[in-house]
Amino acid sequence: SPLQPERATPRVIALANQKGGVGKTTTAINLATVLAAEHRVLLLDLDPQGNASTGLGIDRTERGAGSYAMLIENQPLAEVIRTTPVPKLFLVPADTDLAGAEVELVGFEDRDRRLRNALHADEALFRSFDYVFFDCPPSLGLLTLNALVAADSVLVPLQTEFFALEGVSQITQTIERIRRSLNPGLSLEGIALTMYDRRNNLSELVAQDVRGFFKDKVFETVIPRNIRVSEAPSHGLPVTLYDFRSPGAQAYVALAAELRRRERARS
Ligand code: ADP
Ligand code: MG
C-alpha cells in the first residue's frame, strides 16, 4: 500500500550550513524529488525565507499553517502537511510567522527538542515516510539546532568557491558538539560540492582541497553551476521536474543514487 514504508523509521536528513546561498534548499528539494520517485518523502521548510515552499509551488500568500504552527503552537503534523507537484513528496511549508520562532523557542523548556517531539507525537504518520528532509536556515540558531537534534544525519552543501573550507568547520564543530550532548546518534551524511564551474580551474582546486580534508565524506557527485537550476524555482518546480535532462537535474539524480548506495553499504 502507498502508506507502507520500506523500513520501520524514516531516514531523517538535515540540510545545513550556516552560510546562505550554498545550495541547501536546491539540494533539499531535488534530493527529495528524486527519492520520491520510489519512496514516500517529507520535506520540512525550516527557513523563514520559505524558499523550499516557493520552490515547490506554494506561494507566500497561500502558505497557511506550517513549521511554525507545529513548533510553537503544537499543531499536529497531519494538519500542516501539504501535497506538492511531486506525487509522493509532501511538504511542511514555512509559515509567514516562522521568522519569530528563533525568539519564541527560547521560552520553551524543551526548546531544542520541539521539532523531534512534534514529529514523534504522531508516530504512525512520521513512520509512514521513508525519508524526511529538513531545509535549514542560514544560521546555527535554534531552528537549525532543532533540526540537528531531530535528525539522523546532516548533509552539508558546500559551494565550490575560494574559502569553502573555512566556513565548513563551523557546521562540523556544531555537529560534533550536538553528538556529544543532545543527539549522540547524529552523523555527517556527507558534504556535497555545489555550483561547480568546469570552466574555472579554481573549482577543481577547491574540490581537491575539500576532498583532501574530508576524504570519503565528500560525495563523488558534484553539482555543476547550471542556469536551469536557478530558473526552476520561479516556475515553482524542482529542476528535476522542470528540465530533467539538464546537467543540474542529472547531477541531483546521481547524488540521490550515491546517497542510496552509501546507505546500503552501511547497513
Ligand atoms: P541556500 O538554501 O543554501 O541559501 P539555495 O539552494 O537557495 O541556497 O541556492 C542559492 C541560489 O543559487 C538560488 O538562487 C539557487 O537557485 C541558485 N543555485 C543553487 N544551485 C545552483 C546551481 N547548481 N547552479 C545554478 N544556480 C544554483
Ligand atoms: Mg535556503
Automatic annotation (TrEMBL):
It comes from the Bacteria. Transmembrane segments: none annotated. SUPFAM superfamilies: P-loop containing nucleoside triphosphate hydrolases (SSF52540). InterPro entries: AAA_dom, DNA_Partitioning_ATPase, P-loop_NTPase. Residues 11-187 form the AAA domain. CDD domains: ParAB_family (cd02042). Involved in chromosome partition. Localize to both poles of the predivisional cell following completion of DNA replication. This is Chromosome partitioning protein ParA.
